[in-house]
Amino acid sequence: MASLVDGFGRSFPYLRLSLTEACNFRCSYCLPDGYRANGRPTFLEQDEIRRLLRGFAGLGMRKVRLTGGEPSLRKDLPEIIAIAAGTPGVRKVALTTNGCLLLKKARQWREAGLTALNVSVDSLDAARFQAITGHDRFQDVIDGVELALGLGFDSVKLNAVLLRGLNDDALPQWLDYLRERDVSVRFIELMRTGDNKDYFERHHVRAETLRQQLLDAGWTLVPRAADAGPALEFRRPDYRGRIGIIAPYSKDFCSGCNRLRVTARGDLRLCLFGEFGIPLRPLLQSDDDHEALMGRIATQLGLKAAGHGLHQGNSGITPHLASIGG
Fold first, then answer.
1. Which tens digit of pLDDT belongs to each residue from 173-232?
2. In a domain, 281, yes or no
3. What kind and span of H or E run contains 290?
4. Angle 138-148/102-112 helices, nearest 10 degrees?
5. Which long-range contacts (CB under 8 A, 24 or more apart) does 297-301 make?
6. Using an 8 Å Cβ cutoff, are 281 and 39 in contact?
7. pTM of this prediction?
8. What total number of domains does the chain contain?
9. 29 closest CA partner among 248, 324, 322, 229
10. In the sheet where 14-18 sits, what is the strand order?
11. What is the rounded distance in angstroms from the CA atom of residue 166 to the CA atom of residue 132?
């Protein structure tokens, strides 16, 4: 039977599924002018999502992450979570969110079957948070995180994009936050996309610098699980929390790739920064196309490249991260 293995021997038990391109934040590194609808066809509907996940699970996908844009803008998010959790073979259902509705909805998402939660928190300082995201919602987001920590999720993680001159001096504040909280913060190196060249040149800082700071301070690297994301995670015995680093410009970043992506309109992306998408939506209209769907996914996986072209300044067809879910 076909499986999710590429020509370089990498396996892909992890799918990132975007539910929408829309986002209500205006993060300076992603959508500084806000989301603008382009009138193209609508995003995947529940039956299409059910068929898609069944196809990937039939090939060995065991973890699905629901992303956006901002996935909580979909009013049917609880139903989609339940579809993912009820897909045979799927063991983990994660969500990445900006946290705008976390305080109101986290309990409902957990009851629907969500097992893991990632929340974007680019700063623990309210003023900086507003400057980066374009919204004065810091307290709502951080209160939502505190609520989520008591709901029994397998993991709660916070994502912070490293930005020179904006938040790259905040490690001491994060360490205070992590000392008594069972949460992981992941620092993500700013990535070049199709529309952020000037911003990237102003604010990019190498994640390797932070990695060395952690090692010098006594943090140790934790072994990576087979279905984990791309973060290198560090622990220290006197801290309940953990620190992760996502460094897409590191020399060995792509060798451990274990995830595929599907856009909100049903295109398979073999790489976040790939040059093309493979339309799966025509095979999501009927249960009768299940075998054909699995065949297309498995065949296209053979085209996956060894790595991205970020080092050469090539970000592929990704205009900004909201378009594919990061």
1. 999 999 999 999 999 999 887 677 889 899 998 888 888 899 999 999 998 876 666 788
2. yes
3. helix 290-301
4. 30
5. 297/4, 297/55, 297/56, 297/59, 297/268, 298/2, 298/3, 298/4, 298/59, 300/268, 300/270, 301/4, 301/5, 301/6, 301/12, 301/260, 301/270
6. no
7. 0.89
8. 1
9. 322
10. 220-221, 232-235, 242-246, 184-189, 155-162, 116-120, 92-97, 63-67, 14-18, 259-262, 267-269, 278-279
11. 8
Phi, psi of 133 (to 5 degrees): -95, -20
Domain for residue 257, yes or no? yes
Residue 319 maps to which CATH number? 3.20.20.70
**How far, in Å, CA of 203 to CA of 149, rounded?**
31
Q: Residue 8 falls within a domain, yes or no?
A: no
Residue type, 179: R
Q: If 0-12 CB within 10 Å is exposed, 13-18 middle and 19+ buried, where does residue 78 land? A: middle
Quick check: is 208 in a domain? yes
- Give 316's DSSP letter: T
Report pLDDT digits (tens) over 257-291.
778 899 999 999 887 655 558 899 999 999 999 99
Cα–Cα distance for residue pair 159/97, rounded to 1 Å: 10
Domain containing 272 equals: 14-323
Tracing tokens 């919204």 back to the chain, one arrives at 135
